[in-house]
Amino acid sequence: MAGLIHPEDLETVRERSRIDDVVSSFVMLKPAGGGALVGLCPFHDEKTPSFRVTPSKGFYYCFGCGEGGDVIKFVQQINNMGFTEAVEFLADRVGLQLRYTDGDGGPRHEPGLRMRVLEANQAAAEFFAAQLTSPDALTGRVFLDGRGFTREHAEHFGIGFAPRGGRELLNHLTAKKFSRDDLVKAGLVRESGWDFFQGRLVWPIRDAGRSTLGFGARRLFDDDRMPAKYLNTPETLVYKKSHVLYGLDLARTHIGKKNQAVVVEGYTDVMACHIAGVDTAVASCGTAFGSDHSRMISRLMTSDALSGEVVFTFDGDAAGQAAALKVFSSDATFAAQTYVAIEPSGLDPCDLRIQEGDAAVRELVARRVPLYRYVMKNTLEKYDLDRADGRLAAVRAAAPLVASVRDRSLVSEYLRELAGMAGMDTDTVRAEVQRANNRKVAAPEPERHLRQEAPAEPAASGQVAMMDLPDPADRRLATERGVLKVMMQHPTLFPEDWGGVTTEDFQHPSYRQVFEVMTSTDRRAGGFAQAVVDGMDDPVGQQLVVALSVEPLLAEPTGAYAREYAARLRLARVVRDINDLKSRLQRTNPIDEQASYNRMFAQLLELETRRRALEQHAVGS
User: Fold this and answer.
1) pLDDT digits over 95-125, tens only?
2) Which residue from 60, 85, 251, 420 has the least number of CB within 10 angstroms?
3) Rounded Cα distance, 280 and 465, in Å
4) How far apart are CA 351 and CA 356, in angstroms?
5) Which positions ≥6 away from 377 have C-beta within 8 Å?
6) Model pTM?
């Protein structure tokens, strides 16, 4: 089995994959001067371009939402891929056969196969869509009409029809020079030569970048040899059911803008929601909603993760309650807050739209309640609350739910709510929640296995905090940001000791950490900015490094300019030290504490001497 991608191949992929070429496949870019390009950000909704691509440095950065990185990070974000998948995607694009270490060294798949599979899927999607207007697809059109969907709706969602003959798709695609072997690997054709989908209504399943990864198909005819009501593309190089969400291509921008995602259960439910105005709806494909899906959604939420919402729609029956419990068991994987929307009549969004109209679908989502509250209510209902021992048992069963709430400011309110529902005093409930919280903290961490992957996702509240992203407009930190920008973009202009700058010269801890990584990175070996990005363990820190690497400088840098900027930073620290020392001197009695006073006064004289010298360096004297 292949192991990690060879480091040399990673660099080759970065070198051959021009970031402007890759980004321009998704974003219309225009020259912005200085060799940079700008366009509308694909990761959040905006009307004025704030998305900047700097080909000379191989970075992109959005000054609106703060997203940024290299070409690999861009592919990860736009396609919701893992790090390895993104590298393999780019390697296929440039025709590079990757080598793998710590394994047999063989490629995971032949070069170019991923692109050929995606091209075959796109051609298949176009073929299916064209077939929807054929006479044989009448049953499919009747099905859509019965669920309130028009021809325009079908075209918007790319719905198609797979002919009943069984070889039409194979013949069509082979005529377009696709090999039968590639079609089998794409999951479009079976080994036997029959089309995988036959006589079914077909929905294309696309990634956030609108590449067709696979299909979902609904049974229409009684003589269909496949008993399953819904049939999905088998696992392929590009289609992995735990990594895809139907409707993500249409919902992506709206999820980022509204900081909300609505998770429904089927293709027609997604359609009904979008048509009704709930344009953040998505659905898992042939599998339960899992942790990988939650990470996909979290990456699309551009605002504060803890203020985001993931709303699940479940039936109100026992099956719906079981599904809610299953989702809640993995609630810790969500950065956003989780909610549940239950229709009392038991109708799913599609049927609800048919019977009561678009407004009812919007109202369903508007009536959402916290998932923990729904699960807590169902937990308490299992106990006899008329008995003292039943109430205590109920509270002990529900206490872990309150203990798991990430927003600690809400815990007190939830404690009172649980106490009221169970009919017990708040102090008793608080004690049980505290015991549950202690058990959670004492639980051992699961074993973590090393793997080659992109930087970790942002940690949820209660875990290790990430770096703070400094405000670029903070005038108090302007010198710190300015000198780091020059250091990142022109590191060789500085003397070997970085002009005497040390970590203590930086007030903001994030700027200090960036400088620490810079000082341990070889600035003369080439690829300095990328090396500093790779040296940052924190994803926010990586984002900061990218921003510093692409933000415009105030002037054309020279060696003298770099030395003067370094002196200004050191001067700012000396001025702070002088002010601190003067404050201490004012609070010190020169008679009762003569020795201490004299020592501080001598230090003040020394600092004033350093200040005068740095002032001269800072202005180029």
Assistant:
1) 787 887 755 444 556 767 888 999 999 999 9
2) 420
3) 29
4) 8
5) 421
6) 0.64
